[in-house]
């Protein structure tokens, strides 16, 4: 009898594949309408067990979420033992498994085992889920897949994506990264934040007060806990805490794309406001003054944080020993890249969209700051840099700040606490932060087409490779605009083509984006 008899039996009886639409592992896992995902979840549960075997029994994470997507969507992200996204070479294995027929499952699992040279062992998997109504049932499908494949599942319940990453790493490091409990997560971040702020004598223009938009998701629940723990240190007024629809008219993606305040915060003036997305791995700041909206996105967070870390390195005499760099994507505003390289003297590398790519590129530096413009990112410190910082008496502020950062993946709330620390240390208001440089006006749009996968890109997504003629027409449109820049790429999380445009004025950026959307639709219709 095949060792996968149980996996097949449960698949046929309870989690059969009833659709034949092809689904692919995208920018951050599988993501589509929730009703199409039951069999995918079941199979990912089984695959996570194999991944754990391949990693000598270390814990693998499975997160059920569609993050910034609408409530009707859902998805699954796999987390590797050191907290990174699933290794790239396994993405095609996951796609293959998700798209095979039920009866092919045993063969596909066997081919993963032989292809990757895996020896059966302990298969440990942590499962977390967001607050979507469809998440409990999909989580049960993952748990069933783990059990059928002979693995041991721990159901962590409703958590943010970064909390699951934390749990995986804290467990796999035997507590070295932090106590492997949710209480350990909250304690680590809130005590580091409290100590850092406690060491600041003068707040200058900084005021420890924010308005928080929880996107009606799990970020609101996490913030509730931080509000209790940070009482008297950071005053947080929370909005969109769960009674409304997830990500609808609120959340980090809404604020970034629409460049306007979310529901509930439309009329707030002169106060720092923060939005997180549906699974709390992205964060965006903004404020309004005299009715004018000002966005402080991932690029702004990257420049703020990199500039301050560079200052701390100089202050502690470590500038020559620790190399700091930044990673961005094509979405980074041209002004932020100029400011980072020319004014701050921090080198920048550009990679394709997806924190999995940014994270890897950031590991090339001793301190790698990576943020996508959409607010997804963090800071990673090499083992050598961490050791040196901890052992250098003049680097105590840096050591404290390092503990505020969830290095395992972008974490909206850890990033928020980091931003608050830097603003407090600099004595800056949101306005002071905003005036460090001027963004080039820009516009993000979505183009609906029949088949977005017909578009392929190169040069870190800045050039279209196919279909033929598309890049030439984009170039021609761009040439009409002063300081124009535009690129198109198929989304890996939504069924759309994304279009980005920059130009000297807002009107021109909007016009360029609209022109490029039309070109994409004409060529792909
Ligand atoms: C995911 C990825 C991000 C990416 C975003 C949008 O974020 O983790 O790195 O920027 O999708 O990707 P795309 O433009 O391909 O749709 P999240 O927060 O939605 O999981």
Question: Main traits of this protein?
Answer:
525 residues; 41% helix; 5-stranded mixed sheet; 19 strands; Alpha-D-Glucose-1,6-Bisphosphate, Chain A, domain 3; binds 1,6-di-O-phosphono-alpha-D-glucopyranose; alpha/beta; single chain
Topology:
Elements: H1 5-14, E1 30-33, H2 38-54, E2 60-64, E3 73-79, H3 88-99, H4 105-115, E4 124-129, H5 135-148, E5 152-158, H6 161-172, H7 182-198, E6 209-213, H8 218-229, E7 235-239, H9 252-258, E8 273-276, E9 283-289, E10 292-296, H10 298-315, E11 324-328, H11 334-343, E12 348-350, H12 355-362, E13 367-371, E14 377-381, H13 383-391, H14 396-404, H15 412-426, H16 430-434, E15 442-447, E16 456-458, E17 463-466, H17 470-479, E18 485-490, E19 497-502, H18 506-524
Parallel strand pairs: 2-4, 4-5, 6-7, 6-8, 11-12, 11-13
Antiparallel strand pairs: 1-3, 2-3, 8-9, 9-10, 13-14, 15-19, 16-17, 18-19
The structure holds 1,6-di-O-phosphono-alpha-D-glucopyranose.
């Amino acid at each position: 009898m095949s060792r996968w008899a149980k996996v097949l039996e449960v698949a046929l009886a309870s989690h059969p594949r009833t659709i034949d639409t092809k689904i692919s592992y995208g920018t951050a896992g599988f993501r589509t309408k929730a009703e199409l995902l039951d069999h995918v979840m079941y199979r990912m549960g089984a695959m996570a067990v194999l991944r754990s075997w391949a990693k000598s029994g270390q814990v693998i994470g499975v997160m059920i979420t569609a993050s910034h997507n609408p409530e009707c969507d859902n998805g699954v992200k796999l987390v590797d033992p050191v907290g990174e996204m699933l290794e790239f070479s396994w993405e095609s294995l996951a796609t293959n498994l998700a798209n095979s027929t039920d009866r092919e499952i045993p063969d596909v699992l066997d081919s993963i085992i032989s292809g990757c040279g895996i020896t059966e062992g302990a298969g440990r998997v942590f499962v977390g889920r967001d607050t979507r109504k469809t998440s409990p049932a999909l989580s049960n499908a993952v748990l069933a897949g783990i059990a059928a494949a002979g693995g041991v599942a721990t159901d962590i319940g409703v958590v943010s994506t970064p909390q699951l990453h934390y749990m995986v790493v804290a467990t796999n490091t035997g507590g070295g990264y932090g106590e492997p409990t949710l209480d350990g997560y909250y304690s680590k971040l809130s005590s580091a934040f409290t100590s850092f702020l406690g060491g600041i004598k003068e707040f200058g223009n900084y005021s420890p007060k924010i308005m928080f938009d929880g996107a009606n998701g799990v970020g609101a629940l996490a913030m509730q806990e931080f509000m209790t723990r940070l009482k008297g240190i950071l005053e947080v007024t929370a909005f969109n805490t769960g009674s409304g629809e997830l990500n609808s008219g609120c959340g980090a993606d809404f604020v970034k794309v629409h460049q306007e305040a979310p529901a509930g915060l439309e009329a707030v003036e002169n106060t720092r406001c923060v939005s997180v997305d549906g699974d709390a791995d992205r964060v965006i700041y903004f404020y309004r003054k005299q009715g004018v909206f000002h966005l402080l996105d991932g690029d702004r967070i990257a420049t703020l944080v990199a500039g301050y870390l560079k200052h701390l390195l100089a202050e502690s005499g470590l500038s020559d020993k620790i190399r700091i760099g930044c990673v961005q994507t094509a979405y980074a505003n041209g002004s932020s890249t100029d400011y980072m390289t020319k004014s701050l003297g921090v080198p920048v590398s550009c990679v394709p969209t997806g924190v999995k790519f940014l994270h890897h590129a950031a590991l090339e530096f001793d301190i790698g700051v990576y943020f996508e413009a959409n607010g997804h990112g963090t800071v990673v410190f090499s083992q050598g840099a961490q050791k040196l910082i901890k052992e250098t008496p003049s680097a105590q502020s840096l050591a404290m700040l390092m503990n505020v950062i969830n290095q395992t993946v972008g974490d909206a709330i850890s990033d928020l606490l980091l931003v608050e620390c830097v603003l407090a240390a600099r004595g800056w208001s949101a306005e002071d932060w905003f005036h460090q440089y001027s963004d080039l006006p820009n516009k993000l749009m979505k183009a609906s087409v029949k088949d977005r996968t017909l578009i392929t890109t190169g040069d870190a997504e800045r050039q279209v490779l196919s279909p033929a003629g598309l890049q030439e027409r984009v170039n021609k449109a761009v040439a009409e605009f002063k300081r124009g820049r535009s690129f198109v790429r198929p989304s890996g999380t939504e069924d759309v083509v994304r279009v980005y445009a920059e130009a000297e004025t807002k009107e021109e950026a909007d016009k360029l984006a609209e022109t490029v959307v039309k070109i994409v639709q004409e060529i792909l219709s």
